[in-house]
Specification:
With 150 residues, the chain is an alpha/beta fold. Helix content is 33%, strand content 22%. The protein has a five-stranded mixed sheet, sandwiched between helices. α1 links the parallel β1 and β2.
């Protein structure tokens, strides 16, 4: 299992995915991505179990965690549910996943953990609600990792 933290460390709450993988680095295999589709596609193909952590905007209270589990099974028949409206990136995780499916580099199982952000202004730190959410997301991922090892 690998964990991919997506974000931009210089844009406030958009850095939350990166902060989560920094917190987990000694416990699980982690990678950081700025959301570049080619990076994500390569990382998606590197392990059958992938967890992606990213900031999102859905209207929920800041710091709210949303986990979406996608079991893809046979990569040739899997359809990826596109939900880019919840990404903070123009080309989001779900679009990169659909490209990975087309290219045959899709993981068997993908869990996307979205953390509701509040401020994405350049040069700002994480808001307090997201500082708290980093630990919640890390604990959730450690629980998922333990389930995968069983």
């Amino acid at each position: 299992m690998i964990v991919i933290g997506v974000g931009n460390r210089f844009r406030g709450d958009d850095a939350v995915g990166l902060r989560v993988v920094q917190r987990l680095r000694e416990s699980v295999t982690c990678y950081e991505s700025d959301g570049d589709p080619s990076d994500l596609i390569v990382l998606f193909g590197s392990d059958p179990e992938v967890i992606v952590v990213d900031a999102m905007v859905s209207g929920s209270p800041p710091g709210t965690l949303t986990a979406t589990d996608i079991v893809l099974g046979d990569p040739s028949s899997a359809h990826v549910p596109l939900r880019s409206q919840s990404s903070t990136h123009g080309f989001g995780v779900f679009e990169a996943l659909e490209l990975a499916r087309i290219l045959g580099t899709i993981p068997h199982r993908l869990t996307v953990i979205g953390i509701e952000g509040a401020s994405f202004a350049p040069g700002t730190p994480l808001t307090p609600a997201l500082e708290s959410a980093v630990e919640q997301a890390a604990e959730l991922i450690l629980t998922l990792a333990a389930e995968v090892k069983v």
